[in-house]
Amino acid sequence: MLPALIGLAAAAAGATATGYQTMAPTGQWFGRTFAAGVRGSKQIALTYDDGPNDPHTMKLLDALAKHDVPATFFMIGRYVRERAGIARAVAAAGHVIGNHTFTHPLLTLKSEAQTRAELMDCRRALEDAVGTHSKLFRPPFGGRRPATLRIARELGLDPVMWNVTGDDWNAPPATVIEAKVARQLHADGGDVILLHDGGHKALGADRAQTVIATDNLIRQYKDQGFEFVSVTSMMGEVEHLAGVGAHP
């Protein structure tokens, strides 16, 4: 009886761990994803999900421009179709734009055909709106399984996660967002911060507090000697150092 109970407990623990890994931002069980940069770099990458969304995406662009800071925006394809002008404004400002699927489903519950369609439909929406954009892809809710990552790579996409979150999806006060980010940031840098300029349920999500928090975070951490970079730039630094290590 005892061995059977132990076996059941082990199976339950394994299932729990597997389920956690499908959503864990830095988990790598199901395939490699980019979640953080180089420690010691003093770099921070700001990322924003679920746009484009007016008026807050445009207000966010103003805040980023004020500090001359690049960011990375993971956009929902159906919103790009409806707010193509905002997507173009993000691209014109020099920010990186990534694929966040067309309708923002939890991809772990979707078939391979549905997953491929979500990524390709978002890609087409982005190409129609802004032309050439990055190869970055972020799964909605962070949900992925081996097939999700395989399909993304077959489409030439690089999966990107995060290692710091402001938990701003439910629009808490800016001070709360800032405090949550501060508790997770590393003193030596290399962090990818998840924030939101939109909401996956509908256009018009209130992201005023995220805009305020962004302004304050940039000011605070620039004063501490951090450099704000795009995800593509941070990934390039990681790849460069890996190459240096491979050829001493």
User: How many domains would you count in the coordinates?
Assistant: 1
The third-level CATH topology is TIM Barrel
Radius of gyration over C-alpha positions, nearest whole angstrom: 19 Å
Quaternary organization: single chain
CATH classification, class level: Alpha Beta
Percent of residues in helices comes to 40-55%
Number of helices: 9
Identify the overall geometry.
globular
End-to-end span in angstroms? 56 Å
Q: Ranges with pLDDT <50 over ≥5 residues?
A: 2-20, 244-248
Structural class estimated from helices and strands: alpha/beta
CATH architecture: Alpha-Beta Barrel
- The pLDDT mean sits at 90
Main sheet: strands, sense, barrel: 6 strands, parallel
Number of DSSP-assigned strands = 8
CATH superfamily: Glycoside hydrolase/deacetylase
Beta-strand fraction estimate: 5-15%
Task: Give helix and strand order, one letter per element, not per position.
Answer: HEHEHHEHEHEEHEHEH
